[in-house]
Design a protein that fits this description.
It is built from seven helices and no strands. The protein is mainly alpha-helical and about 120 residues long. It folds into two domains: about 80 residues, 434 Repressor (Amino-terminal Domain) (Orthogonal Bundle); about 35 residues.
Amino acid sequence: MDMNSSRDELKSEKLEQIKRGKRIKKIRENELHMNKTQLAKEIGVSGQFLGLVEQGKGNLVYKSIQKLKILSGHSADYILYGLDDDVIEKTKKFLQNYTEEEIIQAIKIIKDIAFFIKKD
């Protein structure tokens, strides 16, 4: 790995950390309606540390993420990466209308399409 790719990777990680902090702050303020001290107590960190996390200057440990996940109802994928919480549930509901054979056939078709897209 050269210096530029290493520097780019660190920059990308820092940007993700900042986005994660903003997501956590949004969850705290807009959904849980808690101040930093309240949420920090619930997830087992200090209010000062939670402030650093929200500013993108720190990361929560697994245990705190797990508590935030339970408290907020969001998936860890959403908290950590901003991935849509509802995709799995929406997909399950949508697929209930189809037989297992139909779903397997559709997956095969998707794989074939992906093969042709990558081929070009």
